[in-house]
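Title: Comparing notes on inverse folding

I've been comparing how different people in this forum approach sequence design from structure. To keep things fair, I'm posting one structure and asking everyone to reply with a full sequence. Here's the target:
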């Protein structure tokens, strides 16, 4: 009964900073891009809000 409501609520949920960071890191194309993105995350690129 509550299945569709739970799915709808999950669709509206805003991803956390850790989830955004992981998605950003997972989008890297090679090792150098990954290292560059890791430095950006370490500098707080997703934590300034």
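Reply #1:
Here's my take.
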């Amino acid at each position: 009964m509550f299945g569709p409501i739970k799915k709808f609520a999950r669709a509206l949920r805003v991803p956390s900073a850790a989830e955004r960071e992981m998605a950003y890191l997972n989008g890297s194309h090679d090792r150098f891009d990954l290292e560059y993105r890791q430095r950006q995350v370490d500098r707080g690129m997703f934590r300034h809000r």
